Amino acid sequence: MGKRRDAAEPVVSESERLLFGGPLRYDMGWNEHADAFLELSFRAMVVRLPGMLASSLRLALQADARAARVVLAAEAVRGAAQAVILLAVNSVLRELLAGPDVGQRLRSAAPALFAVAAMSLVNALLRAASTYATGRLEPKVERVATELYLERAANVELAAIEDHAFHKLLDTAQYGAESARRMISYGTRVISALISLIAAAGVLAVLHPVLLPLLVTMTLPSAWGALTNARRRYESFHTWVQHARAGRLISNLLTEPAAAPEIRVHGVGPFLLRHFRSMSETAEAEQARLSRLAARTGLIAAGWTGLATLATYATLGALLLAGAMALSVAGTAVIAIRTGASSLDTLVLEINQLHEEALFVGDLHRLYAEAAKRAVPTGGEALPEDPKEIRFENVTFSYPGDPARPGDSARPGDPARPGDPVRPALDDVTLSLPLGRIIALVGENGSGKTTLVKLLAGLYVPDRGRILWDGVDAARADRRLLAERVAMVAQDFKRWPFTARVNVAVGRSSAPLTEEALAAAVAEAGAEEVVAGLPRGLDTLLARNFSGGHELSGGQWQRLGIARAAYRRGRLLIVDEPTAALDARAELEVFEKIRALAGSGQTVVLITHRLASVRHADLVHVLERGRLVESGTPQELLARGGVYAELYALQADQFTARVPAPKPA
Ligand SMILES: Nc1ncnc2c1ncn2[C@@H]1O[C@H](COP(=O)(O)OP(=O)(O)OP(=O)(O)O)[C@@H](O)[C@H]1O
């Protein structure tokens, strides 16, 4: 079956052009399976059916083996019961239509009638059992699939999360768990329809050889209709999904708190609303197009089905007239054809749905496999118990997708940097971090300070060079043990939408929460006042969008962030811009606290632009465009008159510049 593109190329609306710079196309991993679906033919669907059913069954068995077995057994026995019912009906008709004495005919038909009743009862009971078990199974399957998804996603290297391609997969695969859930009921209905079709077809084949082709002829048009519509729907979905997302983005912007002030002060509301309407109208036009086509296809299919039904009954009539078929057989045939036709209809529809869901589940399985490949490795060498030094040896690192990264090439659309040789984020850096000291990392924006501490924390692995904890290469060390040594207050540390207590204790979430440790960490970070000012103390929910939630200022959050790091009790404390949001008094206080932490034997790696605060560091490393340019004590660096001294002088000037004296009145 050739590829036919039914979906209209979306007209690029003015709104898309203005807001998003052009037409929105969905460029995610979906396209990988879109073509598989578009090439969908009945034969292809049938070929893929066993695989799809097996995949549903595997998930079902994993989620709730008992419920899965109940569904399977119930559906199988129901199919058999239907065959018995058809044969019994045939026998009833035969007895009723034979012989002169009505009483005698009724008596002869009674056992078969009883069998029909009993089998119908069995059928109803089994249907109830299957419905119950399917209902139990579905949420469990979704949960198991989602858990696997989340577990794998949470366990991959940071580099994978930041990798464009992996993130696409992560995004598309999130729909897979829901699809896995839906596959259970579609799968059940496919099995049920398949078994009752086999039952009807078997009975028809026994009754007369011509009946089976008649059954197929009657069902083909609706199968064609269902397939055609499904393919159009799916293709349209893929072409338009990005557009729909953008519409949702605009509607969210209109209601989200972060945008609310500007929407009011700058009057952005009507502007966004106008574009929301314009984009919605474009999407509505697509829906209308699909409905028009679906109605037309439905009419054509219904016409063909009507003609095929007419032909079927004409054939039965001719067979009766010619004496080639008994009246009782014709009666049973009518019932069997109706049962079979409806089963075949259901089968085509459900296989179609199953196939559609299977594509999304396929994304999920691709994610499982890819995430397993990119997971943080387990096991490895133990780190020295009490190392003296961490040493960066010729460390070079570029971010995934960066053109400077070995093996990665620039993607189309990456900003070009004409004339600027592409530099790695860290370029051949060799430096020492003596443990038990305060080490400051200094440099202009983008010089590689944050990157360096991320490598230090084991979040990335160098492309070249080594990071040695005494003699042990961190790349070969047990990453779990390495992480245990590190506490980090990143620049953009997570503000968890939980209570203040959890926001501190999440620093060591694997250990039981103890109030003493919590209070000590809060005190060490100088966050007692912040906590005391909260309406419910540590139990205050720090999320404004929930009822009873409370919002902290940037500086107050920063204190909690430091408390979290203190609670972790990592031997290596990394603080990236800890005072960016603090006022002058708070800044002094936080540096005092950090110094005290170092005094207790903890190593502090401090990134800051406030060079006045660096004066107390034992060692300063100065970075410039990914390279180490200076190292030494603050006094040595000032005396040297290099980059550090220049930056220091610039900041000092701001404070020593003469303030103009007020003019006398
Ligand atoms: N996640 C990332 N993905 C890709 N490139 C990144 C990423 N983070 C940083 N970079 C790039 O790496 C280089 C070094 O950035 P880094 O954040 O380490 O600098 P920094 O010295 O900490 O800067 P700042 O003082 O502004 O915090 C920059 O060119 C930056 O654009």
Write up this protein.
- With 665 residues, the protein is of the alpha/beta class.
- Helices cover 62% and strands 9% of the residues.
- It contains 21 helices and ten strands.
- A six-stranded mixed sheet has the order 6-7-8-3-9-10, sandwiched between helices.
- Helix 2 runs antiparallel to helix 8.
- The longest helix has 56 residues.
- The protein is elongated and about 125 Å long.
- The N and C termini lie far apart (92 Å).
- The site of adenosine-5'-triphosphate has 12 residues, from helix 12.
Largest sheet: 6 strands, mixed
Structural class: alpha/beta
User: What is the averaged pLDDT score?
Assistant: 83
Stretches where pLDDT is under 50 for at least 5 consecutive residues are 1-7, 26-35, 408-419
Strand order of the largest sheet: 6-7-8-3-9-10
* Hetero compounds: adenosine-5'-triphosphate
What is the distance, rounded to the nearest whole angstrom, between the alpha carbons of the first and last residues? Answer: 92 Å
Strand % is: 5-15%
Query: How many extended strands?
Result: 10
Rg of Cα set: 36 Å
